[in-house]
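Lab notebook: predicted structure, single chain.

Context: the supervisor wants predicted structures on file for every construct in the current expression panel, including those that have not yet been purified. This is the next one on the list. No modifications to the sequence; it matches the entry in the shared construct table.
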Amino acid sequence: LPFWLATSTTFAVMGIASVLAGDPRCCREIEAATASVVGVASGLVLFVATRAVVDLATRHPMLHGAVAHIYRRSQETRFVTALVLTLVIAVPGEELFWRGLVLPELSGATTSTTGALLSWAAAVGVNAAWASVPLLAGALVGGALWTGLAVWSGGVVAPIASHLVWTGLMLVWPPPAARDKVPW
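Prediction complete. Output recorded below exactly as produced.
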């Protein structure tokens, strides 16, 4: 399947299944407004940090090619379609599944720390199946941040807000290594 169709369909199913299987909490420990603000701020910080690291890392030809390859997938569909599929379906579905269902279940079966580590490791492992250094790096770093936000807030609002901001900015302002690969 094309990348955008495969990821949005998969995460839509995962998000819907998460809602049907349990109660992905909005925010148990922190008010939704506070969780949203912290999520947005962390997404902005992650974007700036990601761009700085990617700009340095893509000086290496292998990493330059890997980043360009990820953005080349944007040529499979119109930019607006990719943006909507990603921000409306894939990101919320991914967060509902990993931070709204898997994290609370594993934390309930073990401890909060162990559950967080196991759910983060599982999400990284699944992303490793793409065999892509940029996607794996995003899962490692972003996944750690979003898991931490979910543990801190007791829900999915902060990680969804952070993930939406980071992903949206990465799509709208791609790194220099990918600028010639995107149609917008």
